[in-house]
Amino acid sequence: MGRSVVLVEREHLGGVCLNAGCIPSKALIQVANAVAFPEAAAAWGVEADARADMERVQAWMSSVVGRLRADVEGLVRRAGVSVVRGTARFSTARRVVVATAGSSQHIEFDHAVVATGSRPMTLRSLAVDHVRILDSTDALALRTIPRCVAVIGGGYIGLELGCALQKLGSAVTVVEIAGRLLPAMHPALGGALQQRLSARGIDVLLETAALDDDGTALCVRGPAGERRLAVDAVIVAVGRRPNTDDLGLDRAGVACDAAGRIAVDPSRRATRTVLAVGDVTDGPGLAHKATAEAEVAAATAAGRRAEFAPACIPEVVFTDPEVASAGLTPDQAREAGAEAVTRRLPLTASARALLHGDGGGFVELVAEPGGALLGAHIVGPDAAELIAEAALAIELGATLDDLALTIHPHPTLSESLALAAAMS
Question: Which residues are marked as active site?
Answer without folding.
Answer: 410
